[in-house]
Amino acid sequence: MIFKSLTLHYSVPILVELYSAGEVYKTTIQKRVVKTLSTLDKVLEQLESDGLITIEKRIERGNEVNRISLTSRGRIVAENLSHLDDYRITLPKGLMEEIEKIIDKDKSHASVEEYINEAVRKAIEKWKKDHAVG
Prior knowledge:
With 134 residues, this protein is an alpha+beta fold. The protein is built from six helices and three strands; from the N terminus they run αβααββααα. It has a three-stranded antiparallel β-sheet.
């Protein structure tokens, strides 16, 4: 079975968050994973459509809230995704291919992960230097 929702940015971190936290409020996911409400709504709608989550509207203390939980199918998918080390970062295919070409030719990095870690570390150091931080 193919889940369209898994191609959306943030879907995997949302599933992993639900797997580790259990049933949560929609606002909790917004605070921890997706800041933009419209993006969150789009991803949640597709996850629900794929049968991976349920969204239950409730009234608590006079306010309407949304509680989100994994379905049994969603729990299986999330459990498998939670074992991935790098599930939070998805690189565009073209960028990944370019990095792999560089690594093949240059031989200075053992993996794409190592290459990206070094590039990010250098970018952070440069930003700190340019902005007189730390």
